[in-house]
Design brief:
By secondary structure, the chain is α+β, with helices and mostly antiparallel strands. The chain contains 4 helices and 4 strands, in the order αββαββαα. Strands 2-1-4-3 form a 4-stranded antiparallel sheet, with helices on one face. A hairpin with a 4-residue loop joins strand 1 and strand 2 (about 30-35). The protein starts with a helix and ends with a helix.
């Protein structure tokens, strides 16, 4: 097993401590949980391209826009997350 494969497996098993929240004009809320802040921010960056744009329509034909995109910390233990990722707490906080 290569080093990259081991790291990807560790990331997949890591606790998901960062959440990207997208809120739409019809009240729909979508969450994507990630183990690293950088991963959640990358997803949010892609979502922010659609802020204020029509993303679809409701069953009644009303246009739905993306209104809010936020990244928030949902975890509780930096040490546990760092152990799963294979780095120090300081490195994880810097990512």
């Amino acid at each position: 097993m290569s080093d990259i494969t081991k790291r990807l497996d560790a990331l997949a098993a890591a606790p998901k401590v960062w959440r990207c929240v997208s809120v739409f004009s019809d009240g729909t809320v979508r969450n994507l949980d990630q183990p690293l802040q950088a991963m959640a921010e990358a997803h949010a960056k892609g979502q922010r391209r659609f802020l204020g744009k029509v993303c679809g329509k409701t069953k009644d034909g009303v246009p739905v826009t993306l209104d809010i995109v936020e990244v928030t910390y949902i975890g509780s233990d930096w040490a546990v997350a760092a152990k799963f990722v294979g780095c120090t707490v300081a490195e994880l906080k810097a990512s």
